[in-house]
């Protein structure tokens, strides 16, 4: 009885595996292969999906990112567009409009930054077109502002696209007519001019004033890559014609476009009967890595545990001879004719239907294969059948379905009983630890600490190599399965980030052994993983971890800071050398410094002086660039720790960033099994001198925020809301949304609104920007955790500015919750 | 002397710009090394021809592995997980065989991450040639690097050729060459197997492993003999 109980207890955790295993055995019902996607539509001169100078309702493939440069009539437009969601396209544009101002003005060209969005309302069907609504230049100076509703329909298998739309603003500046919305709402009859400062959302103008029609046709010719376009555009280019030579003759544009490869497209156009135009678009997809291949060597294989004779005997007593009858054959005999005294059907291991058939006394006790099928036919779906003699001895067990086969395998596993005499012997445990560390080094992961129990092991790892943590966890699991004594059945793996244990990912060793190398191995293995918050580092684990300290690290590498959108010189850059070093004294406790030195560049040429009426917390950036070479951009003492299993803490002090020094504390509550978390930080800082060394200026401030982080279940979108006091002493909040892709790309946008008025803020009205972070291994054929991250702000002003801290807590753990880990787990066995 | 100093300074600067760290080359440094490898690849020496007698004496199961690029290599069986046998070489290439079917690859660039075969598939479940079915369906599994998993499902038809003799590292085998033509609505590929008719053992095969890799040719130099299973 005790043995029986023990068996069941051992089986219980394996039941999880069964559900996954049963899934694995479901015959493939997936389509043979995803059909080739249709050719993606082209961009227009504004850099959004469209015809020539007007948009269409078409969308790029999800996550497509494109850079378009175009020119005609003295207008340069450089646009980065991104398919934010399958039905939402966004674009940021930097335009140069020559001769926009009168001859006697300070400058003649307008350097304009603008944002567009286009939302698809209706997806194209067999009988109806796709329909989209869009806002052009909705968040800029309003020079290009216009709104539209547009419909597009494909014909000739997608080779011919016909588009028609109605627009407002720029889209109705020629041949406009009374706004139909104005028939019902008087306020829509007239349109307000954009605010002169620019930068705020032009709510007051949307869909107001006259309306106009636009449309056209795009034809993909039989010549590979060649398309022809014709469109009717209602954009009068009124302001542009006022001071320049550009003179619109007719509202018709003609174009010829060529796409030599999937990622490049060129177009030539005859615009408005007057000018020739050109366009070049380079395009790629975030979901399609630039380097699809990798040169990562094979991991070391999982070594299955040996099976001894005693275990075989125990399994044989429970199962008898085991046979596999999973061949789809049907019963050829009737149940009523079978020499069977009785059948009971039990549910085992989470739903497996297991029949126990007692053979009649007259039976010859040979394994009755045909009767097993007859039982299956008689009792409905039966996964496995065990035949017993009248006195209860099991003759044989037959697997009739894959679930039965897996249940038999798990039953055999439960019969294993490995010795545990090694446990508690410090020398043997140390030897195991040393072997495991060596094996893990071969698998690309570092052992921080290993604690052993007779049937369980907890392994803390550091992953400096793999972009996706589940892959590092998989490598560690392989090593554990190769090295740890056979009695260790439960593997707990704890990734350590910045010296802090993050989450515990637990697997049953049997599951690893049963799933490795099989179809759907990664998915089915990870589906059995338990992800929980890791406890604080303590006891033997802390003792082992401390043995690796102090740790010294250094790096010398190039740095290319870039300044964009300065009207005097829209692109400036430096090539700098960054020398960084850190000394870690204990887990989470370190001193880090970075010194930069310009080698060549022109960032120090910026002469822009701040006109801000707020404390100059950011707008004196030119002074820092000019005088801060060489510059000590960071010199901090940091301590990161866990205060509770799901509460992280950090204290940083010193030269926190290029412009501020001081002390900062941060707390984050982010449970592993929760999609949201809450954090808070507070800092007392003083502004650093422009020489970016050790001197400080007089300005000081207490700044801090509370933050809410939420990983929405919607297309990988993460939301961050911050509220608090900013560097200039202004109070307010920041809304940030970013899309996090499983391959590590992050792209998002943020906007900050504080008690600083739009006028007081100055040009741009409020702080806003775009955030992009690219995992380096997306672009290269080897594994790396490095990233290229950048925040693109149209302007650097003083309102709504936060400290730029390198080691905030949320980025440390946001990819280590159960959800993000699961979404990146396909590489577990790689 | 001034020129030498300038050259040394330029070299030092170049090295610094490529990046280095306490962990070895930085990412930029690695890119530089990769670029150097691409421009001036080190010649790959062919693996020395192993001695059959010595191989058999070790009891190791060894297969000869050849792609379209580079010299063939020899890989040894290192692990058997429920009939999925991992063959791996010191250079970090590995294939996992299920029967004679390549069920997984590692270290090839675009790796096969899984293979689902039917029980009647004679390549993964050996059976005498006379019992081979006319066609089978296979699901080849992959994933985009750090991205989503995807499958290629192919329907494969077998076509028997003549009996012939092949020689693998000095040993002759009488086999039947079987062409396996696999297709779906997007692609057509062909595998070839040299099968011992009576046992269904495949001594040599050329197998498709994915849309972005060349087929692999396997030859069983010394066959794998599984330990006693349950």
UniProtKB/TrEMBL annotation, chain A:
Alphabetical keyword list: Signal
Domain of life: Bacteria
Pfam family, one: YjbH
Signal sequence coordinates: 1-32
Record InterPro entries: YbjH (IPR010344)
Record's protein name: YjbH domain-containing protein
Organism, as annotated: Paralimibaculum aggregatum
TrEMBL record, chain B:
Matches recorded under Pfam families: YjbF
InterPro entries, per the entry: GfcB (IPR021308), YmcC_sf (IPR023373)
The keyword rRNA-binding is assigned to this record: no
SUPFAM superfamilies hit by this protein: YmcC-like (SSF159270)
Signal peptide positions (record): 1-23
Keywords assigned by UniProt, alphabetized: Signal
Gene3D superfamilies, alphabetized: YmcC-like
Protein known as: YjbF family lipoprotein
